[in-house]
C-alpha cells in the first residue's frame, strides 16, 4: 500500500520547501444534472483524497523568474503548476520567484485530478515560501481560475461537490481501500462532455442519500461515453470484474477503481497499466498550511 512520505520539510529557513505532496482524488460517484447555457455542466459528486501523490520541491528565487524542473516525465511547457505560480505572483505583486521541481506519479488523463492537485499544492507552498500567508479565501478565486477541481484540493477535505465543481461541502468519508488502475490510453475531458450521447439529466441527490450507501452509491454518468471513446478502459474494467470486484470510472479520465478489503493482494496486471492499492485520506497532507482565518 502506498504511504505518503514526510512533507513540510523547510531547508535553510524559508529558502526552500522539500517533499511537498499533491494527492490524487477519486470520484465516488459523478452525476450530470444539466447543461447550462454557457456550455458548462451542473454536476454532483463526492471527491475523496487518496494517497497516490505527486511530490514537488520549491526553491526560492530572489528574482521574479518562475522555472520548472521535470524530475520524472516531461510536462507541457505551460502546465498548471507554472500557471498557478505566475497567477499568485501577479495577484500578490511579489518580486520573488521560484524553481519548482516535480516528481510526477499520478497518471495523466486519468480523472484523478493530478494537474489540479499540483496547482493547489503550488499555491499553498508559494504562499508560505513567499511569506504571503494568505487565508484560503484569498487563494480560492485563483484556484477556480485554474480549473474547477483546484478549489477542492485547496480546501483539503473530502467533499460533496455541486455546481460546476465550485460548491464544496466538507463531509466525512469512512476509511476505505481501493484498487486504482489506469490503462495506457487516456481520455480527454472535452471529448466526453461534448459527446451528444452523454446523459445530462440525472435527478439531484442529497448528502443524506450518499451517506446511506457511500461506496456503493450512484454511478459515473460519463462512463458509457468514456467506454465508447476508450476501448482499453473496457478491458481494464473487465479485468477488475474478473477479480470479483465492481469497478467504477473516476472523474472524466480513463482510470477505474474498486473498493477492496485491507488484506487484498495486488495481482499482476499488464505492464503498460499503472496500478496501486490506495487508501483515502481524511485531510490534505498540507493541512497545516490551510488557514481559514482572515
Flag low-confidence runs: 1-12
Which term fits the overall shape?
A: globular
Rg measurement, Å: 19 Å
User: Approximately how much helix is present in the residues?
Assistant: 25-40%
The structural class is alpha+beta
Look at the structure and give the CATH class.
Alpha Beta
Please identify, by name, the CATH architecture.
Answer: 2-Layer Sandwich
Global mean pLDDT: 93
Structural domain tally: 1
Number of strands: 11
Helices and strands, in order, run as: EEEEHEHHHEEEHHHHEEE
Tell me the fraction of residues in β-strands, as a range.
25-35%
Number of helices in the DSSP assignment: 8
Largest sheet: 7 strands, mixed
Q: Return the CATH topology.
A: Ribosomal Protein S5, domain 2
Structure, described:
The strands form two sheets. Strands 1, 2, 3, 4, 5, 6 and 7 form a seven-stranded mixed sheet that branches. A four-stranded antiparallel sheet has the order 9-10-8-11, covered by helices on one side. Helix 1 packs parallel to helix 2 (114-129) and helix 7 (223-229) packs across helix 8. It is globular and about 55 Å long. It has helices spanning 80-92, 114-129, 136-146, 150-155, 189-193, 207-211, 223-229, 231-241, and strands at residues 9-11, 16-35, 41-61, 66-70, 97-103, 159-162, 167-170, 177-182, 248-249, 256-260, 274-279. Strand 2 (16-35) and strand 3 (41-61) form a beta hairpin. Helices cover 25% and strands 28% of the residues. It has one domain: Ribosomal Protein S5, domain 2. The chain has eight helices and eleven strands. With 294 residues, the protein is an alpha+beta fold.
